[in-house]
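We now fix the convention by which a protein and its fold are recorded. Here is one such record, which you should read through line by line:

>
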Amino acid sequence: MNKLKKKLSRHLIVLCLLLGTSPLHSLSFNYAQPFALNPVNEGIQLGLGTALSGSAIVFDKIVKIKKNNYDPAEYDKKDIPDLDMLFARPYSKGLHITGTVTCGLALMTPALFGILPSNEWLTIGVMYAETLLFANGIKEWIKLTVYRARPYMYFDNYPQKKVDDGDWNCSFPSGHTTLAFSGAAFTTMVFCQCFPDSKWKYAVAGASFGIATLTGALRMASGNHFFSDVFAGALIGTICGIAVPYMHTKDFYSKFEVNRHGSTELSFTPAGINLAFSF
């Protein structure tokens, strides 16, 4: 426990240095502007993200499609893959709380972009909201449709309250890890795009993903998740954290631009209507 606290402290110190040192603040005067908002793009992404997260809440809390039937006889350690069992642990409330704290820190890493001019904050904020909506919606729907008991259910003294609440069979994927890695990937992706030549990008990536990785480790150490749960969560979060900002770059938008010198021809024939584009 003391080693984990020391490791967490080191990550916090690095993050504070990144947020507070003057060389980093000076970057705001020498950055690229790779991202832009688009009404159609935001309508689609915000709509889909909200639908994913919102519907998951409805089907979980109101419709309650996931059943909460626990039979101890159905759960045997021998049924768990060796790699997962290697990292399985009994429940630890202290490590559970610590993992929640590190997840919060990972989610806060985009605060780093306060160094950018204020007219960029809306763009960054909208992109991050979309990232979290997608990451949260995807992991919640998987949790709703996949029944997997948490590691602590294979040990004595598991938290009965978790069983009563129906949280005991929501192990896959790790939600904390998904959100932590979405924050880390988003911060790294946006920073590298805004400051492609900066030497700080390695420190930003290391600190962000370091906190996210620590979150995943704590979720295993606290008995809440298997290794495969954490790996899946890290993959989902990383994909969302990279894909959403990319879909706001000029390179992405350019794929949908029509050549201004192109022409469109519409003709009617006995066989039907022909629509042709020339570039």
